[in-house]
Amino acid sequence: MSLVLIVEDNPVNRDVLGRRLERRGFSIRFAEDALTGVAAAKELKPDVILMDIGLGEIDGWEATRMIKADPSTRAIPIIALTASAFESDREKSFAAGCCDFDTKPVDLPRLLSKMDRWMGKTPEAA
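RESULT FIELD:
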């Protein structure tokens, strides 16, 4: 079973996305802020991280940079999730080290496809 770390400060978003992914066979862990997310990435070594960008004092981009700077967590794929569909946010996400970008509200089939790709379950995985 694949382990997914969801870094999301909104409890409703955490709950809804977590339940939807659990129903599809994923094991889910949560972090409510950037620093907790960085620590959880190091401890859990999830198969993929779904990183909210708007996390407050330390945003998801900075958390991603911290995860990617650590050799023990560098290889974990991180998919940015944000309510903002601006191209500049997409560019910032990739510059921070995210492997992909998706918008909220989550289109689950699209997100699952991206997760599969980056967890190496499809031939397009980089």
